[in-house]
Amino acid sequence: MPVKRRIPVAKLLRHVQHSGLRHALRTATAAVVTLAVVTALRLPQGYWAVVTAVIVMQANLGGSIQASWARLAGTAIGAVSGALAASLGGQAWYAVGGAVFVTLAACTGVARLRESSRVAGITAVIVILGGHPGASAWQPGLDRFLEISLGILTALAVSVFVLPSRASRALDHGLAAIFEDVAACFALVVEGRLHEESVERRVFALKDRILRTLARCRELRREAGAEGVSGEAEAQRAMLLFRAERLFEHVLAMDHVATEWRGKGLHRHLPGELAGLEAATAEVLTGLGAHLRRREPLPDLARLGESVKAAREKLAAMRRERAPAAYDLSEVMHFFSFMHGMLSCAADAGEIVRRLRAAGDD
Description:
Low-confidence stretches: 1-5
CATH topology of the largest domain: Methane Monooxygenase Hydroxylase, Chain G, domain 1
Number of strands: 0
Structural class: mainly alpha
CATH architecture of the largest domain: Up-down Bundle
């Protein structure tokens, strides 16, 4: 008989946590829990709480907190505006138009409330048109606010206790991916120049991925701030994101130079030094990615320091021997621009490691 393979529970949980199933499961849990609560409380329109729980549940706690704030603020503004308009003009067209205008003007006028403008406008319309003639105009607004508050509280509780995910940890993984991709792009650009090969297609794919990851990391940094991380941790992640952007800019400059630099000249004077500097820099950046992703020890900088020293000594020797004088100005400019990019990448990679080590992050 064939032996049935059993899937370990721990392995299954890891798969759920590292795939899109995590968010689906947490959202479904929030919807079910909210439905159970509104049923127990016998709320007549409890579906608003369930809808809210589904809307505000994000991929991480910080995102859920931001979405909850926008939903709650928009509901409060829309409920007050709608109730006030309904009490003055009932369900007349000018009451609806005036309430929507005032609500959206109030939200868009305050930077932190702009994201809640749509929710606020919808709430105002529901409060006006969903009320009953002769009944208090304020009761529907209070009901909507309480129902949505219940949905928000349930969603936040599920975010904390069911397969919890933190924006700060997701940001660490995003930064790790950037450092690893920058290392790959850096190595590809240098090797393409050393071997005088075109690597534009492969470099383009990496650049596109880095740009998308950087955009996501900026968003995650804002969400991580909503989670109440410590000031030191926030400053450290800000430093890492800033340095990652700088490294990417250096590599972009190197790629631009390499694309226009078709000459066969000065780089042939120090192929070993260039290869050594490329390998050492890529090794440190890859090590940074492993440190952020899996909390491995910070990379050692000894090899990087030796490679930078060897490259600088070779450059000094080339100047003493007047090697650049044998080439035209365009070749010299491209070569030294490329070298500046390589040395800048090495300097930034080393500075990141030293700062993390000084902060006790080893």
